[in-house]
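Margin note from the TA: students keep mixing up input and output lines. Inputs are the sequences; the output is the structure of the whole complex. Example:
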Amino acid sequence: MVETHKIINNFSVKIATANGTGSQSANNIFFKTLVRMGIPTSAKNLFPSNIQGLPTWFIVRASSKGYQTMRRESEILVLVNRGSLVQDLKEIKKGTVVLYDQGLLQVPEDVEGAIYYGIPFSKLARENYDKPRLRTILTNVTYVGALAAIFNLDKQTLTDVIKDTFSKKPKVVDANLKAIDLGYDFVKENLDKKDVYHYEHDTQTKDHVILEGNQATALGAIMGGCTVAAWYPITPASSMSETIEKYASRIRVDDKTGKRKLAIVQAEDEISAIGMAIGAGWAGARAMTGTSGPGISLMGEFIGLAYYTEIPVVIVNVQRVGPSTGLPTRTQQADIQLCAFASHGDTRHICLYPGTIEEAYELTAKSFDIAERFQTPVFVLTDLELGMNLWTSKPLKYIDTPFDRGKVLTAKDLDQMKDWGRYADKDGDGICYRTLPGTPHPLAAYFTRGTGHDEKANYTENNEDYRRILMRVKKKIDLSPSYLPKPIIEDEKGAKIGFISVGTTHYAVVEARDELKEKHNIKTKYLRVLSYPFHEESIRSFIESCDKVYVVEQNRDAQLAGMLKLDFEALALRLKTCAYSDGLPMRPGIIIDRVLGKPWEIN
Amino acid sequence: MSDTPTPTPNTNRAGLTRKDYGGHPSTLCSGCGHNSITNGIIAACYDLGLHPHQVVKLSGIGCSSKTPTYFMNRSHGFNTVHGRMPSIATGVELANHTLTNLGVSGDGDSASIGIGQFVHAIRRNTKLVYIIENNGTYGLTKGQFSATADHEALDHYKNVNKYQALDLCETAIICGASFVARSFSGDRKQMGELIKAAIAHGGCAIIDIISPCVTFNDHPESTKSYAYMKEHDFPLQELGFVPSFEEIQVDYNPGEARNVKLHDGSHLILKKLKEDYDPTSRLNALKTIDAAKQENHVLTGLVYYNQDIPSHAKLLSLPDKPLKDFTEKELRPTKEEFEAILKDLK
Ligand SMILES: Cc1ncc(C[n+]2csc(CCOP(=O)(O)OP(=O)(O)O)c2C)c(N)n1
Ligand code: SF4
Ligand SMILES: [Mg+2]
């Protein structure tokens, strides 16, 4: 076939493999090569809650506009997994390009207009490597070589990526380069290009870094001065704590003494993990715990204690699909209300909602200031989508702002005082002064209790005392937004339809807005919340400027919309829900359908 | 310490009076064993000349867990949630391992809802004086059986306990404890020496103190009553605590006493009573407790001791300076280190 036109840097490759086969390493090499070529690329890992053998899919989307959502359909399929073949074959349509492991998979080349490239990946690996494990791993690298040959990946960049990835293991570099050549040469010698897809150098992402959201959060914790981290393993949060430990080993260890300026403890459960973080926060350390939904449920009682006794602590929730164990390796935003109101009794918590790598990093760093300033638990809500996928990002900025350690009285301060009350609102902002255990002063001590207490921290069951203290705590939280990150607003002249979204739902909103404008001539404006309690003024005026505002989020029950309706009661009728969740990241089509009034396939 | 004041008849080496170690008046039932333990804690801290600001009082929930309000008002205190005192203690230790964590718990608090945290604080050897005020019942919720109630014991309402009793000393030993003791709130001397030794120990020191609940578990059939304990308490040794700042006065023959050297340089002299008892053998400790139970004896004293288990702070390689005191400059990477991290992400 003669190439009539070329499609450059705007197509997706979906790779079907089995997990535990080393495919991740090959896929990352492929992804990194594209990023280094300067092509805006996103990578999504669809993986099972299992260690070995079940199907995984890796979807690499190049988009010169920088779109990041996972597309439902991919132009190119790479099939190397027998286990998912039946399912994968259904995705082949007219125009689909299929690379498959010839000899291993029975692929009937029968879809009209589809383009098939049969390449004997397994056979090539078998002929060239004698160790079975090496064969499996390098079969994956071989398809990267084939992709390079067919779609014009820059061979030099690819070589550099492999060299950098395995810089400490020259033998592994050689084995990988050889595997690349096997795939590459086979294609060059045996196949003619029949499709229209090409990668070409761009400049957009040349300086970008590549990292998972959990890495960004971990780096934020390090820059935020976290010194105590306690956690219990859970997907998709584990890698965050593990990365904190890794970074601590790199930069928090005294070369001479081996002493570590970070205590990280894998606790016996999430209750203990939050207990340690609260104990450490009470005693004056910047402390955190990282978990996912089930962990937050377990932490409930302790969160209320920290709220009522006013102890700083940072809780990162990398959300996954609930309820219960749900889909542990899929993404969702259904803990928005759980976190905002965690624990029994009247509580309301400060929450931060990063949606990008840079925000995960910066807001996590900032969360320690917020927690210490307001002496309260602070939630950082990310999700599996952000946390466990690789993202490209502009290089993160060095943070050199001083810590805000909040209102802490030292022995010197106490010398100037006759008396003080731990829960006395001296400044009228609802935030009281605290002392840390160990402060060498006879006045320093006070008693912290989750039971009713008065300004002096004494036990009380008096109704007025109780109400006064609880109202003051409310005031403190109510006044917090001026210190919290403001929503990000993208205005559009003449638009009367608005979107409000949160976290990683962002990416689908961006694409939906473009398509609505380009294909349907519908202009929209957009506000993304970064924190709770809400910035009253900016959100109010945004809603007021629209006839209709769709609140887009990844859950069933419109949790964010519910909270907005509560706070903006008079405008509630303008708020329309656009809540959808099936475990996959939000897609633009779902939003567009909602705006156009089309019913969703599954409601 | 050069600025140590000279003790006078009314002050200790910290220059403080006994009153400086006092707390609010107790609101517990009069005669409650927990009050005696409160007094024991005050006496021990006074005798040791602890600076109250270097002590942290921690507890869970229960009558027993209320007691930190009744001693040492000049120490920070934290009455946490039911069964979770050990994790708070661990957090305090991580933030500032120079403090002395004085933890008070109950048998409900530690043997039921908090058994997980009990076990794991022991495994980590968290720096914690861990006192369980054990009355075999849930005092605060009005007399239900606790997990330490003896099998077939009767409660206040004459119900029979169907389940096996959990022995916190045995459990602690099995979990790898470094210091395990049992005492009776009615034995002031023994309890006092054990609390002092536990403070000197520097790791997780478990003291299970039988502490009768006069309201719900002091009836004639109770095995946690004053009367029962008076008859069935069998001390393993006679204890003599010698603080680090004092010389050992008496010379004992090797066959007569054992000298346990504690982490901070103090000593606990274990004077032989009827039989010699070796507290450094786990198996021996378990066997002896078990044999005593067959005779309905409640063994008290230092049950087990192992000085070779490293402190939690050491296991984590914590710096001498408390983590809470580090500044941004000390905690953040330099610009160069940060750039190097980013470079690795390309
Ligand atoms: C999560 C939770 N469940 C139940 C309770 C009710 N509760 C309060 S004290 C207590 C038992 C206390 O028993 P113990 O620890 O033996 O203390 P004691 O009163 O006997 O000294 C219970 C069950 C609670 N406070 N929190
Ligand atoms: S109920 Fe029992 S444990 Fe509670 S204070 Fe009274 S005597 Fe003590
Ligand atoms: Mg009890």
